[in-house]
């Protein structure tokens, strides 16, 4: 089978598509025939070795959607899903939404769960929420979840993301490329950008999933690290099947993964990208 692996840490050129044996599941594990994984910018840090040493060669791919024992499954793994097959603990896999293609479901786990954990415990109906970085993979889910709970959503996005963010329900958009800023107060700020915000509106609470935010005196500020939660992932799938959330993703074949990493490092990606296994690529290409 094909697997996108790194044999050493470094720039995107260290990613290579290798021929490797199909893995064998151990106790409590299943073999997943991968439909797709997705690109998450945190995997750039994995590739570079910034998250610490790891066993090499390492197969990329945290998000997975595919089939196990003939049943559709999806989830978030510790890597390995940028391949035709991956072995996964059965307990980490849940049923994907049935209303969207399995390949698209691979866009959901890490980005959707991060948005869920930023928004659902912290945002209430009628509150004003400022989402900084709405054009990203997490931001798209965060805008929709904040609208789902009944918040007034103000989002930063550059022009390439305006139409999408409006379609997700954002009430106001601040174009961060123009130097425009928000001076009206908000209840909650959710920061989803890898660099600190250049400005902070008058705010009640700050939650960052990305770069640390230097909060004004007296403003509670926290940094969250996404925890895997199969119950929340199932809830996301149910909201999607109920038509409350949409999932948009551009799909690339596994052969493109190094190029996707290059584009990710260059800031040339908006929203989610799914990466299909080689088997599915052949099928997609007819
Ligand atoms: N804490 C955790 O556990 C955790 C988990 C997952 C991810 N993360 C981190 O969360 C961050 C977001 O992840 P992601 O997957 O959503 O990233 P992403 O998809 O790569 O986000 C890219 C988007 O960021 C937007 N952006 C770039 N610079 C911006 C700026 N100065 N102001 C506002 N928006 C800007 C762009 O929006 P436009 O298209 O509008 O230009 C772009 O589309 C990353 O730093 C990631 O490492 C943390």
UniProtKB/TrEMBL annotation:
SMART domains: PKS_ER. This is NADPH:quinone reductase-like Zn-dependent oxidoreductase. The lineage of its organism: Bacteria, Bacillati, Actinomycetota, Actinomycetes, Pseudonocardiales. Pfam families: ADH_N (PF08240), ADH_zinc_N_2 (PF13602). CDD domains: MDR_like_2 (cd05289). PANTHER family: ALCOHOL DEHYDROGENASE RELATED (PTHR11695), RETICULON-4-INTERACTING PROTEIN 1, MITOCHONDRIAL (PTHR11695:SF294). It comes from the Bacteria. Gene3D superfamilies: Medium-chain alcohol dehydrogenases, catalytic domain, NAD(P)-binding Rossmann-like Domain. Residues 10-275 form the Enoyl reductase (ER) domain. InterPro entries: ADH-like_N (IPR013154), ER (IPR020843), GroES-like_sf (IPR011032), NAD(P)-bd_dom_sf (IPR036291), YIM1/Zinc_Alcohol_DH_Fams (IPR050700).
């Amino acid at each position: 089978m094909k697997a996108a692996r790194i044999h050493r840490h470094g720039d995107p050129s260290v990613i290579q598509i290798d021929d490797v044996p199909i893995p064998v599941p151990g106790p409590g594990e299943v073999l997943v025939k991968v439909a797709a994984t997705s690109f998450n910018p945190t995997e750039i840090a994995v590739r570079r070795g910034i998250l610490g040493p790891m066993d090499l060669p390492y197969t990329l791919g945290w998000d997975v959607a595919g089939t196990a024992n003939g049943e559709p499954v999806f989830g978030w793994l510790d890597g390995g899903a940028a391949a035709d097959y991956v072995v996964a603990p059965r307990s980490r896999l849940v049923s994907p939404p049935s209303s969207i293609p399995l390949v698209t479901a691979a866009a959901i786990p890490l980005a959707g769960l991060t948005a869920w954990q930023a928004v659902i415990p912290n945002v209430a109906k009628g509150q004003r929420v400022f989402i900084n970085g709405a054009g990203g993979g997490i931001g798209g889910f965060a805008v929709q979840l904040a609208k789902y709970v009944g918040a007034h959503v103000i989002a930063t996005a550059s022009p390439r993301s305006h139409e999408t963010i409006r379609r997700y329900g954002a009430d106001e958009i601040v174009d961060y490329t123009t130097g425009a800023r928000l001076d009206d107060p908000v209840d909650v700020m959710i920061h989803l950008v890898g660099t600190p915000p250049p400005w902070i509106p008058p705010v009640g609470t700050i939650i960052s999933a990305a770069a640390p935010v230097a909060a004004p005196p007296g403003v509670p500020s926290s940094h969250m690290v996404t925890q895997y939660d199969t119950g929340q992932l199932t809830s996301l799938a149910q909201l999607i099947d109920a038509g409350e959330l949409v999932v948009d993703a551009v799909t690339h074949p596994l052969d493109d993964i190094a190029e996707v990493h290059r584009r990710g490092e260059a800031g040339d990606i908006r929203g989610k990208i799914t990466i299909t296994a080689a088997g599915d690529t052949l099928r997609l290409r007819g």
